[in-house]
Write a structure and sequence with these properties.
By secondary structure, the chain is α/β, with parallel strands linked by helices. It has 2 domains: 1-80 and 159-283, P-loop containing nucleotide triphosphate hydrolases (Rossmann fold, 3-Layer(aba) Sandwich), CATH 3.40.50.300; 86-157, Helicase, Ruva Protein, domain 3, CATH 1.10.8. It is built from 8 helices and 11 strands. The protein has helices at residues 49-57, 96-107, 113-126, 142-155, 172-189, 200-206, 242-258, 291-301; strands at 6-16, 22-33, 38-42, 64-69, 72-73, 81-84, 160-164, 192-196, 209-213, 221-226, 271-273. Strand 4 and strand 5 (72-73) form a beta hairpin. The protein is globular, with a radius of gyration of 21 Å. The protein starts with 5 loop residues before the first strand and ends with a helix. The relative contact order is 0.15.
């Protein structure tokens, strides 16, 4: 049986609830990513999206379950995985170019100085910042800083790129411009990307698939929605495709009406949905009985 590029099996995260018990943020999360896919994950605040991403990055540990990438279990951070956070995370004393050079030198320490610089400049040019090579982060707007972060992450050519709401702090106009640049750079590199977003339209523009999480606590990745829209995509024209409206309506319906009760397949894998093909929402699954409540009820009635 062929293995996927990334496989997540039975992932759960449990914290102390401060009252002597436990709080299960998410449980039995199972999914796979294929090489070169762009996958977004959407869910309401508190369902554990960022924690899942941090586990994939090796920055956090799951309470149970495992993550396997290219046949090796993920344990701790590594250069084969790149992360872009919402808060830019640039080195303030280095220029735009040198922020990227620093990462590229760490990735390929045997490269010559000229090769490192050429490679770094190429990725800054991809995000439209070849005119700002020598500016420090304090001399850049918020949108420009995030472009440097994105360029740095792509420049190290990680096998898996993890984006944690990278445009969340940007205004709508800047956000749209950087979305277009992200589409362009991904079309050129075809790196595997896993991205958190709260923006339905952003997810449709960027993704091959969209994971939908149920509400926490005890959140699950309930559904995997196919985005059958041709590449390359453009914000200016994507809405003209009838499939766009079907996908968008499906996502909004999930978030508004079904995220509180949605469940995955019996084996824990997300239910695969293709709204553009007319797939309807799965029928609600009856909630599993609370064993503790049932036991208490029996004791009272005995």
């Amino acid at each position: 049986m062929s293995k996927s590029f990334l496989e997540v099996d039975g992932l759960s995260k449990v914290y102390p609830d401060g009252q002597g018990g436990d709080l299960t943020v998410f449980e039995d999360v199972r999914f796979a990513l294929e090489k070169g896919e762009f996958v977004c994950i959407i869910g309401h605040s508190g369902c554990g999206k960022s924690t899942i991403l941090n586990v994939l990055a090796g920055l956090d540990e799951a309470s149970s379950g495992n993550v396997v990438m290219n046949g090796k279990e993920v344990k701790g951070p590594g250069l084969e995985r790149g992360v872009v956070f919402q808060n830019y995370s640039l080195l303030p004393w280095k220029t735009s170019l040198n922020n990227i050079v620093f990462a590229v030198k760490a990735r390929w320490p045997k490269w010559s100085k000229d090769k490192v610089r050429e490679h770094s400049e190429r990725y800054l040019k991809m995000v439209g910042l070849d005119h700002a090579l020598n500016r420090k982060p304090s001399q850049l707007s918020g949108g420009m800083r995030q472009r440097v972060s994105i360029a740095r992450a792509f420049a190290t050519q990680p096998e898996l790129l993890l984006l944690d709401e990278p445009f969340g702090a940007l205004d709508a106009l800047t956000r749209g411009v950087i979305q277009d640049e992200l589409v362009k750079i991904w079309e050129e590199t075809r790196q595997t990307v896993f991205m958190i977003t709260h923006d339905v339209d952003e997810a449709i523009l960027l993704s091959d698939r969209i994971f939908l999480m149920s509400n926490g606590p005890n959140a699950r990745i309930a559904e995997s929605v196919k985005v059958n829209l041709p590449h390359p995509r453009s914000r200016a024209t994507i809405f003209q495709n009838p499939a766009h409206h079907k996908i968008r309506d499906y996502l909004v319906d999930f978030l508004v009406n079904r995220s509180g009760s949605a469940q995955p397949e019996e084996d824990g894998s997300p239910i695969v949905i293709d709204p553009s093909a007319g797939d309807a929402a799965p029928k609600p699954v009856p909630a599993k009985p609370d064993t503790k409540t049932e036991t208490a009820a029996r004791a009272v009635n005995a």
